[in-house]
Amino acid sequence: MDVEVRPVGKLRESAAAQAAFGPLIEALCRSPADLSRLRVVCDWIQYSSNFREPVASRQVIGGEPGQLELAIDLRRCADADLPGAVAAVLGEPAEAGGCTWLEPWVSGRESCIWRFNSLYWQALSLWEKATGREYEQSLPGGESDARNTEAARELILELFKLWDELDARRALPEELYVLELGVGNGNQARTWLDQFVELDRRHGRDYYRRLHYLMGDYSAHVLDRARQAVAHHGEHVSALVVEATRPAITLGFLTGKTFLVYISNVYDNLPTDEVACIDGRMYLVQTRAHVAGAGRLAGRFGVQRQDLEPLIQRLLRIGPELLSESVPEHFADPSQAVSFWQAAWQALRLAERYVLLEGLDTYRISPSLTGEILRPLLEGHGDIRMHVSNGTMASFADTLPLLHPFGRVQCHDLFLTGQADYRTGFYGPGKYDGSVVNWVNGPLLQLLASRRGFDVRFAPFRQRPGSNVKTMTAQVRD
Predict the structure, then answer these.
(1) Which residue has the higher pLDDT, 339 or 66?
(2) Whole-angstrom Cα distance, residue 113 to residue 111?
(3) For the chain, how many structural domains are there in total?
(4) What mean pLDDT comes out for the span 453-473?
(5) Does one domain contain both 266 and 399?
(6) Rounded to an integer, what distance in angstroms lies between the CA atom of residue 46 and that of residue 14?
(7) % residues pLDDT > 90 (the chain)
(8) Strand partners, 176
(9) Which domain holds residue 13?
(10) What stretches of 321-465 adopt beta strand conformation (E)?
């Protein structure tokens, strides 16, 4: 039996978590499981709202027969009947039991959790009305770390320096394009543009007259709110609905023209698979969404338990407003349908299993990229599990061609900057209000950028060094 404890710092602070190891080992020894084929992985899951139970099992399919992984959340084990939960999980296959399944086994990026995620952004105004707060208030600290005047001024002055140098060589285009992806409530754009106007007046080069600031976002509601925030900048600003994983479909006209692509809190919200290396073999992590406490959820809203799954599927297809119109006997108005949506999201869980990959080159990260790029991060490093960041990889690859030869991508997000980081903690999926969050595989982004002639560098967010947010910069390699 192998026992792995991911050494997150908070584990040292929790006497309850430390005290769980004795009862855990006793429960394992009393179980009928073949301990020689059992892996035990102990995480501290920092997201209080997430998709995992405190104790869960994961089958390993395609490796040694009967191999099983037992997953323990040390943060919550003190509040659970740990011996009873271990006995129940090891005595019952993960796909059995009394839960209500919402899908078959699929890769992580194909799970219906991303349909919930899309619904959140599509019907954000209804969710915010029900909660009484804007979505940014659900972030740690109640706001995005990237909204910072000092950071905006620093970035603008760097642009001015570049433009001055190009202008001196008669190489500066007449139109100066800046693109923001993931505009939030528009505060970042307003701060950036207001600072741009002030600094341009001092600079005396009249760059503002030539500036085109484009805001791209998946959510029309978010764009409308952001557009209002920057209305005083008039025709200098355009707002476009953009598919985050394929920005060039909408923004292809910017190819080779964009001096700055600014991205904040987008990549951690894009679909991703996970892969793992176990005993030298490569596996894809498959997931299966289900509803915990399905009977309670059905009873709360006066529906039969067998009707719960089709009702949730209908919600994901048509949204809460049309759901209330289609089944008024259950939801008299959209607000009740939103309550159902929120309760279903809270109850949503993911079962997991490992399925053997025949070869990394047979696995596709995106239409243009195979899993072969993962090899240096997986081979020769022992047992490890990591995000593939499929949506981010596709988005990033689609964004790089938009850059002017002297342009850059600057992104503030939750980045892991070393492959070894995956050995020290849990990095998603977690839940932010009604959306999904996963930390982004930074070393994988660096490999992708290097293949395309770009350098990617990571740095702490300078204006708030203690934040989990890091700054990624991508530019053409010198």
Answers:
(1) 339
(2) 5
(3) 2
(4) 89
(5) yes
(6) 13
(7) 73
(8) 211
(9) 1-97
(10) 348-356, 364-366, 369-370, 384-387, 403-413, 415-416, 430-432, 435-437, 440-441, 454-460
